[in-house]
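Hello,

Following up on my earlier ticket. Below are the three sequence lines again, exactly as submitted.
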Amino acid sequence: MGEKGPGQDIIVKGSGLAKHFGEVHAVDEVDLQIFQGEILAIVGSNGAGKTTLLKMISGGHSIDRGNLIFQDLDVSRLGLIQRARMGIIYSFQIPALFENLSALDCVRMALFTREHKTVMFFPTIEKFPLVRKEAEEILNMFQIPKNFPACLLPHGQRKLLDVAMAFALKPRLLLLDEPTSGVSTKEKGQVMDTIMPIIRQTNTTTAIVEHDMEIVTRYSDRVIVMDQGRVLAQGTPQEVLSNPKVGEVLLWR
Amino acid sequence: MPRKFSFPLIIGLLILATGPAYFPGFTIYLLTYGMIMSIAALALNLLLGYTGLMSFGHGMFIGAGAYTVALMMKYAGVHSFEILIPLSILTSAGLAAFVGCFCTRQIEIYFAMLTLAFGELLFVLCSKFYGFTGGTDGIRVKMPTLFGYVFKGAVDFYYFIFFLFLLCALAIWVVCNSPFGKAIQAVRDNSQRVGYLGLRVMKYRLIAFIISGAFTGLAGVLVVSLTGHAVPEMFQVFTSISIVFMVILGGHLSFLGPVIGAIVFVFLQSWLKPLFFWQFFLGVSIILLVIFLPGGVLGGVSIWVRKALAKISS
Amino acid sequence: MLELIINILLNGIFYAGILFLMSAGLQIIFGVLRIVNFAHAGAYILGIYFTYAILKVLPPEYSFLLWIAPLLAAAFVGLLGLAFERGLLKLIYHRDPVFQILVTAGVVYIVDDLIRFTWGGYSIGVGPLTSATLNIGGVVYPLYNLLIILITLAVAILLQILFRKTDIGRVIRATAHDEEMTKAMGVNVSMVKALTFLFGSAIAGLAGALMLPVTGGWPGVGNEYLILGFVVIALAGLGSVNGALIAALIIGMVNSIGIQFFPELELAMVFIIMAVILTVKPSGLFGAVPRR
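Thanks for your patience. The regenerated structure is below:
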């Protein structure tokens, strides 16, 4: 590999990816590439297979057919724990937080994991000032108060915390599953305005499943449009939006 | 040591430290017993409150610790704490590793049933091999010596236990607040997410189970030294449920809850046992506690507050 | 040699039958209520003692009605179970499993002491319904035990019919599968839960009632069967009644073989088999991972 796309390395290459649930072909013969450092949006109407595809990359869903290459390694058969260790980090649509832990602790947990320090029985976590400092910085970036237990945070901040935890792991590939779902239209912009600059600054390769085309146009480098499990179109947001077939699919259903 | 020395805690420790000066002998005995069971209760709460695993078989570690002492005394002539304690911790940890390998790979409900079942298995084995273990009669145990020192009365043993209690409480506190402690809390709160961070959930549950078992085994050594009699009933579900009850009674949501629960339970049991149908009262207490005071003595208020806050903000 | 095999088979099936009765109740209660019911030990022991009481009270002229005693006792146990479910269990449905287990375990202590209070702490026993024996291939086997096997088989078949053919059975299965959906379809889920608990407890009570002449009764007699019931349902996979039948047979046979050849280790053998199977298939033979 090491093929160069438009001036970049390809870090993910999926060929002929397919997954079915019984009769339903959720994902059907999908080829995709993700370039280093880019933000790739995966869009489509409900049931188009976007989340399924994302989960096939994260390891949450097994790959029935096809293969997935990540940084020159075939990860198709690897489980989600191994993929996470390789740097493929998934952020949940319904926030999966450590409910009784404070936001600070949630991020610290991610940091301890990254630093391979999770099986240390002593000293207490307060003896790790660097971890604390980094966690506080991350929380500041994402504008999340640090001392509230996760279960008490309002929905928008829960979504942000989920992303913050994924981000804290310094992912090689960040997978965001509808980071603005359930967030009011007014707040959607705020949430994305918080997340996206951080991603850009750190050059984090990101694949994001999203419904809102405005957001997609504003923030993503390339877009893949899915419909009924297949790729309908791909390209830059401008290219994709000017494609009449895409207009049909996204406006009608 | 950035420990929050709150006022009641200091008072409690002072009372415990100076107890023998003004408490009658039987109270000293009960406090000794209470502190020993506090170690077991803290150990169980590491598993229950912090890792989210319900073990209904922790009696097996009390039994393991107790019988290590009894058998070593009977067959190997070992009489000293300095050997018996580390040895029992090892046997209990080993037992926990063995049992844990089967139980921690299961979901929480199976875990409860299987730990219960293993405890009963050990009870049956212990009773059946009576040639070796003394069967249902158990084995009588003399108070071990400590580096040559022979315990003369209740008071010096009391302070020995007090010292061990403080040591164990501190050790368990450090573990609970260590990165590992956060990890097991993360496992408790969202084991799925832990997997997505790249960690194996079972590994953390197993390690927590082993640590918990080891400390409970230590409690077993101390119990048998105090009561002088190792019996198969220690392995049984009643012992295990008592420990769970202690934790819930004191409050499984706070670190010190189990300590309070253990001491209260020991006193409660001593008042109820002479009553003819004390099991009945125990059962009723358990049910009343669960229905009306699920957070236990320490947790009761904070749980209502948190739920109210959550309702407001959701 | 043949006699040995027949002996092992008969004992194994007999034991499996009782285990099935215990675990079937546990399975359907878990399936619908999502509770691991420790109080089942209480149902078992009450089955024993109620039967005892009925038998003692029955005047000799009506001794042809002896065979009703177990059924009557089972019915009483079921009713008590209903009362327990409506009165107490309902309060803790949405609580943490720890609390549910503690409450159901607490009930066992209460029941044990109530029995001690009513009938004393000594063991009780009665003679079996019939002392006749049957000669099967050279083995002299008690007819009563065979009757128990037949009754267990009948219960298993009845359960199958109930769940597959009747409306109530379908409703129970639907509730077990998806409570919210079933409730949305207008079913009184609360009543389904109550009935399920009644039914499950009654089956356990029946087990006890039948076993009275075989093992006698004493406070605490239910515990061993409860533990074994747990082993069976863990092996079968939570919620699966058919799985419980198979698992009960496996455990019954292992136990029977164990008693013959390694009498000291019979319970250990059961555990070893269970551990092996659960290592290979952690959710049990027929288990899907339940919602919790």
